[in-house]
Amino acid sequence: MAVFIFALSLLFAPLGAQNEQKYEMSDGSCFSIHYIDVGQADSALIICKGEAMLIDGGNVADSQILKDYLKKLGIKNLKYVIASHAHEDHVGGLSGALEQAKTSVAFSPVNTFNSRAFRNFVKNLQAQGVNITIPQGETKLILGMSEVALFAPTKKYKNTNDTSIIVKVIHQDNSFLFTGDIEAEAERNFVEKGYNLKADVLKVSHHGSATSSSNLFLDSVNPRYAVISVGKNNSYRHPSARVITRLDSRKTKIYRTDQQGTIIIKSDGKNVITD
Question: Please, which residues bridge with residue 266 across strands?
Fold first, then answer.
């Protein structure tokens, strides 16, 4: 059974002292996920064997955080950029990331949305000659030595949160699930679709909102660990006590960006290792 140890970082200055610039870790692992602390928003950077992928980028105000984070890691190219859905707290800071790094493939459930944040995201992509790809069904990708599966929304939704793309990353024996802001209806639809949602680590949907993380969905994922991207003392009172109870009842170990800051997970394919 794989052993998981999490490196929790409040500052990203120490990262520069590691060998992340070469996308390799001195401890022998070649895979890392950085759940970047962007407050009441969402952003995750996945690095595997010389390649990097960014899922979401926080709010517009987080653009410099994303730009600086990538710069400190020496990342100038993102193989894939994924906007899970069009809300600003997921797409806003991607413009900053694209000022630091180039990409050739960008995914989003839509290619237009009535917000300045989304239009700026599209504008920055177009400046690099990239158009948004809207995935259909299941899309399989390769990132370094890892497999990536994108699960597109199963139907049209009025609720933008439910249009979120689910991303599953498999690195040998370890698996990681990213859920955007899907709520109970979309969760049920994904389960009914029959996708393999089981994962060792779950990025909890919608910042731990009570409208997400239904028992049905959590039973399908069955995570050993959960990461909640959430802002300190946020006005939404996220994460919900009900969601925490659901996770606790499954003995799921919980990590939160409002408590630990940026959360870094590393894997050598069998174990997740800390420095």
Answer: 32
Strand order in the sheet with 132-133: 6-9, 262-267, 31-35, 44-48, 51-55, 80-82, 106-107, 132-133
- Give me the residue spans of the domains in the chain: 6-267
**Superfamily, domain 6-267:** Ribonuclease Z/Hydroxyacylglutathione hydrolase-like (3.60.15.10)
DSSP-derived 3-state class of residue 206: helix
Q: How far is CA 3 from CA 12, 28, 200, 257, 266, in A?
A: 24, 15, 10, 22, 11
Q: In a structure prediction context, what are the per-residue pLDDT tens digits for the chain, which is 275 residues long?
A: 333 334 433 333 333 323 334 444 444 458 999 999 999 999 999 999 989 999 999 999 999 999 999 999 999 999 999 999 999 999 999 999 999 999 999 999 999 999 999 999 999 999 999 999 999 999 999 999 999 999 999 999 999 999 999 999 999 999 999 999 999 999 999 999 999 999 999 999 999 999 999 999 999 999 999 999 999 999 999 999 999 999 999 999 999 999 999 999 888 888 765 44
| Rounded Cα distance, 169 and 70, in Å | 20
Burial class of residue 131 in the structure, from the number of CB atoms within 10 Å of its CB (0-12 exposed, 13-18 middle, 19+ buried): exposed
Q: Is the pTM of this model over 0.85?
A: yes
25 neighbors 7 (Cβ within 8 angstroms): no
